[in-house]
Amino acid sequence: MLRACKILDEGGVRRVTGAPSGRSLFLVMGESKRKEEYICFPEHLCTCYSFFYDIVGRGEQLCVSCKHQLAARLAEAVGKHQEMEVTDEELAHMLANL
Prior knowledge:
Elements: H1 2-9, E1 13-19, E2 24-29, E3 37-41, E4 45-46, H2 49-57, H3 67-78, E5 82-87, H4 88-96
Parallel strand pairs: 1-5
Antiparallel strand pairs: 1-2, 2-3, 3-4
Helix pairs in contact: 1-3
GO molecular function, one term: zinc ion binding
Protein name: SWIM-type domain-containing protein
InterPro entries: Znf_SWIM
């Protein structure tokens, strides 16, 4: 929880919304020095290593989401995220690069 709050406090959460569909995803900044951004669907998926290793690979029951998903959920709940609008084509391109 603390690590997710740190990401949130540092402004590391952006919601990207496609137009005209209104479909959206979150880009959440990692904590490493590389400052990678992870594509995140708060209820379903994150592209970070931890999500795939701990949650998908090991079926971790105690941890139902990674810090990036938690940061995205918190950001949405308190309205503390940047908004970015792109075309649906650009949004599809982002997803195609997963």
